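Hi support team,

I'm opening this ticket because the web form for multi-chain structure prediction keeps timing out on my end. I have pasted the exact lines I submitted so you can reproduce it. The total is 305 residues across two entries, so I didn't expect it to be a heavy job. Is there a limit I'm missing, or should I split the entries? Thanks in advance, R.K.
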Amino acid sequence: MVNSDGQLYTIEGVAAGMIMLFTAYLVLGMTSVYTPGDSHISDMQLEQLGTDALRMMNTPVNSTASSTLQNIIYNNTASCVYNNGAWSCGFNSTAFNTTFLNYVNNKTGSKIDNYPNGLHYNATVTYYNISSKTTASLPLAYYGTLTGGEHPVRVTEWLIVNKKFPGTNMIENRAVLVEVLLWRD
Amino acid sequence: MAGLNDDAQWIVLMGFVVSFSLFFLAMTLNQSTLVGQTTAESVLDFPKNDIRDVRSVIIQSAVIGDPNNVLHDDVTNISMSRKEAVVYYYNMTGSSDTRISYFIHYNNGVTEYNETWTSS
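Hello R.K., no limit was hit. The queue was backed up. Here is the completed structure from your submission:
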């Protein structure tokens, strides 16, 4: 004669055991996920801001005019010249600095917090040297100095400009890449 | 079933139902972190601006003309050295076509983009 007392307690015990095993399985089997932190999100925003600013600078008022950025790179000088051991291309750094800082710092109502100390940048122009078959960069403009502790993002804009870059003797249409390192202090 | 106290069976049953449904909710939550992670990563990795930018300069060069392939060499070489991306493109306009057609290829190792662009 089997004693049939306490069957419900037994069922409850079995069920509780299963629940505990299932919990342990869920917890141990859970993949530990490194969620993209805040830095990624603010990086993305900064990147979009810089890209938009450069895109605006490279948008001409109509299809026959040159864009602001093309004028800055061209700046009445069709040739890059070599003097004192460095190439000088006569970019209009002042105009770039003014326009770029104005675009990235503008927001509805007023400038961003602690303007103009919020955003800093370092801009270069990268070209392809046809004779040496290498790419090289020329300084364009900067605001603030990179010391190594900053966390910059890189934004770029392609540009076609009628200018003689190092490595060729012809003034012709060249595609160059304007690269800007942008960071927030 | 002698001696079994069968009072409160509904309460016990409901207890089981509630605790198991909690587990299904827990499993759903568990999956959602993974889904969010992969989606966020795909968005971060996708070189939207790079593709737009290189596409626009290629179309510009197609419109203004590039007789000696100077612009072509500039774009492909600078893309390779500064953007870590293989870019190539060529004019595929047929001799009787009234519009310009270009084939554009972009590949940065993660994302590959191909386009046949035709002027309007």
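A quick check on our side: Chain A has four helices and six strands. Let us know if the file doesn't open in your viewer.
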